[in-house]
Every structure is written in C-alpha cells, then in structure tokens.
Amino acid sequence: MQLKWSKQNEKSFFKPIFKLFSAPGLAALFIIRCLLIIGLLFFPLQSTTGWVLISLLGVSLLTASLVTYYGSDGSDQMSMLIIITLILCNLPAFTTGKLRDIGIWFIGLQACLSYTVAGIAKLVSAEWRSGTAIKDVFSTKTYGSKKASLLLQKYPSANRFLCWNVIVMETIFPLCLILPWQYAIVFLIWGFIFHFFTALIMGLNSFFWAFMATYPAIYFINHQMPWHLF
C-alpha cells in the first residue's frame, strides 16, 4: 500500500504521529479494526459500548482512506456507507426503532441501486454486449486468471452467457425487494455466487464481505413490503 505521507513529512509537526501512517502503522490499524469487529459480536449496536465500537471502526476506515494514494473502490464505499448509517441510526439516547428501520431500508436500497447502476453501465458497453468483457478482464495482469481466460477463449459461448447473465441479473436485481421471498432469494444466491467467484478468481475479496453485509437489509425490506408482484 502506497501512502500519501512522504519522507518530508517526518520533518514536519506530523513527526510524533508519523509512525501511525507508515505501512506497519496501517497494519496495526487493520488489526485494531479486526478487534473492534470481534467486540461488536458481544455488544449490540443499541448499547453505548456497541455504538462506540462501530464509531471507532468508521474512524479506522476513514483514516486508512485518507493516508493512501489510491482511491477507494466500490466495496470501500459500501462499507463506509453501511458503517455511517449504523452510527447515525444508533446514536445513544436518540435512536428509535423507526430510525433503525430507516437505516436498514437505506442500506438495502443502496445495495440494489449499486447493482442496477453497474448492470446498466455494462449494458451500454459494447464489450459486455458482445460477450468478450469477462474474458478480457481475466486476461489482465491485475484481475486476471490465466486458466479462466484460456477456458473462456476455448468456449466463447460460455463467455457470452456469463456476460449477459451479469448484465441481466445486476440490472433487475431490485426485483428481489418486491418478489415473493421464494423467488427473491434466487437473486441473493446469485449475488453470493457472483461475489464468491470474483473474490476467488479476481481477488476482489472486499466486495464479497461488503455486499453480503447488505443482504440482511434486503431480506428485511422484502419481508416488510406490504405487497409483492404476485
């Protein structure tokens, strides 16, 4: 991970805290983040301790994003959105059941919006419509997989199927909110498989955890809907 802080910062008034923004410092920050997550298993968000833990977790994510050169990706943004929502909707002495419900709705709707926007973006892409995009991505050095790329080159029909499968499922993903649960769960199973294999093949591990964290909210919304399509 490349940091924004250069050697010149060591000579500035930041020197006493410079070690925090070094690579070992960020590693320690990530360890602290793991400990905070473990703590949340024992303290509910409705408690003051739980709220403090989730707030510190948000601070750790924000700190990591501020001291690195590279911009955050969709999983970082989703993780931060979830945590900020949980912080605001569980403020001690101010939170109510209604406010928590609003927060859950916001997280679920944001997840569906993310899928739909991604699907539409792929739909207007000639590479995705022609069925070559996934093969091309797997051929790259950063997100590639030689075995997967060779397999899709050997079976171009599989590449087209995968491309259109992703386009269609992402675009219509919000249907999971208004379909009866026995049909809506198909979208969540698809999402699990999709994120699992992108993590396994492309190394996008953070997307798996960030979007899986929104699925309970989608389940909640589906069961709160006063009506379904049929």
UniProtKB/TrEMBL annotation:
HTTM-like domain boundaries: 21-223
Compartment(s): Endomembrane system
GO CC terms, sorted: endomembrane system
Protein name in UniProt: HTTM-like domain-containing protein
Keyword Hydrolase belongs to the record: no
Annotated membrane topology: Multi-pass membrane protein
Keyword match Glycoprotein: no
Keywords tagged on the record: Membrane, Transmembrane, Transmembrane helix
Organism annotation: Pedobacter ginsenosidimutans
Regions crossing the membrane: 20-45, 51-71, 78-96, 102-121, 161-181, 187-211
